[in-house]
Specification:
Layout lengths: L29 H9 L10 E4 L3 H7 L8 E4 L4 H16 L4 E4 L9 H17 L3 E6 L10 E7 L12 E8 L4 H10 L2 E11 H11 L1 H13 L4 H9 L8 H6 L5 E6 L9 H4 L11 E3 L2 E4 L5 E4 L8 E4 L4 E5 L4 E5 L6 H9 L9
Parallel strand pairs: 1-2, 4-8, 9-11, 10-12, 11-13
Antiparallel strand pairs: 3-7, 4-7, 5-6, 5-7, 6-8, 13-14
Helix pairs in contact: 3-6, 3-7, 6-7, 7-8
Amino acid sequence: MAGGRGERFWPVSREKMPKHLITLFGKRSFLQQAVDRVLPLAPLDNILVITNAAQAAAVRKQLPKLPAGNVIAEPVGRDTCAAVALGAAVAGQRSTSAVMAVLPADHVIAEEKKFQRVLADCFDLAGRGQVMVTIGIKPTEPATGYGYIRVGNVLPAPSGASYETVFYKAEQFVEKPHFDRAQEYVNSGNYRWNAGMFVWSFVTITQGLEKHQPELAAACRRWFEAAGTPKLDKILAKEYPALPKISIDYALMEHAQNVVVADGSFAWDDLGSWTALGRHLPADAAGNCAAADFIQVGAEGNIIFDARTKNRTPIAVAGLRNCILVQTDDAVLLAHKSQAQRVKDLVRKMAEDKKYRKLV
C-alpha cells in the first residue's frame, strides 16, 4: 500500500511525492526498501503496488523493473479496506489459491532477515487454513500514536509446521490510547502495536469481506472479473468515489473471529513525524540530530534536515531547543517538537491559500 498525502514530512514530502517516495536516510526511498525486503520471498512479478493516480508515475519510475501492470492506481483515496479489496481482486484473478501479504510501503524495518522469517511463517500459516494473520510489534514504550492488539493464548503450530514465530489468538483491537492506558498495555505484556501488516489467502479475505463488508465484497467481485484488462481502470474511475471510506481494522479485523497475531520480533518504526526521525540520525553531545552541514551554539535537542539539491550552505543555529528545522530548495519548516503533528494542519492551510498552494 503506497498512498498518502505527503503531509507529515512536509516540506520534503508533497502530495505527489509523499513519504514512501522520499529518502530520509540511506540511498533508497521507503517504497524501494519495502520492495527490497520482500524480494527474497516473492518475485517482482508477484509484487503489487496499490497507489493513487497522482503518484503512479513516480512509483513506476522508482521501480523500473516492476511490471507496469503491477502498479494499480486508485482514482481517489478510500482508506485501507478498499485498497485491500482491490489488491485481493488483482491477486485472486492471477490465482484463486493465492496467499497475499498487505504491507505499508513507508515503514522502517532495520532487521530485514528477522522480518522475512516472520513473514515466511505467516505465509505458511495463512496458506493452511481460514485464518487472517496480522503482525503485531511488541511495544517498547507507551506510544499513543499507534493502535494496539490484545493477544490471548499462544497457538500451537499446525501438524508438520516448524515456526520460529510465535502466534497468538487475537482478543481485541484497541484504538490509540491515552498515555496512562498505553503504559498499562506495555506493563501487562499482553498487547502488541498494530503495525497494519496482514497475511491471508484470497479465499479467506473475500469470505471476510462477504460477511462484514458486503458492499466492498461485491465491488471486489466486479474488479476480479476486470483485473488484468483495460476495463479495470474504467470501472475503478466509475465506482471508487462512491465506496465507503473505512480502514481494514474498522471494517473487518475488529469484527472477525479468525484473527491470529504473529509476534513481530524485529525492530520496527512507523516513522510518523519529523520527531521520529531523530531515532535514526546520530546525535551530538547536546542531543541535536542533523542531516546537514550544521553548526550551533547553545542549541539542544533539535532535528536539523537539509534536503536542498543545490546551494547547500551551512545551517547555523544559536540557542534553539527541541525544535525541527527542515530546509528544501523552495521552503523552510521551523516547528517545536511538541507541535510536530500539526505540520499536516499547516499543509492543509497552505492548500487553501493560492499563494502557497504550489508548495503542497
